[in-house]
């Protein structure tokens, strides 16, 4: 059987793959470091929802 990893890429393709890989890795590390519970669920807490419903009641 032939090796499935035996293929050749030109330099532009290799560079594109390396740049996209570095970008995705840095993006995921940034999300892990900078993301916390407040930023992920801050818009869905009960205080904000109650305030939003009170504001909507004013326009009725």
Please give a quick description of this structure.
This protein is an all-alpha fold and 60 residues long.
Question: What can you see in these coordinates?
Answer:
70% of the residues lie in helices and 0% in strands. The chain contains three helices and no strands. The chain is rod-shaped and about 70 Å long.
Low-confidence stretches: none
Mean pLDDT across the residues is 75
General shape: rod-shaped
Report the end-to-end length measured between terminal Cα atoms.
72 Å
Record field, number of beta strands = 0
Beta-strand percentage range: under 5%
What class would the helix/strand composition place it in? mainly alpha
Q: What is the H/E string?
A: HHH
Largest sheet: none
Classify the helix fraction into a percent range.
over 70%
Rg is: 23 Å
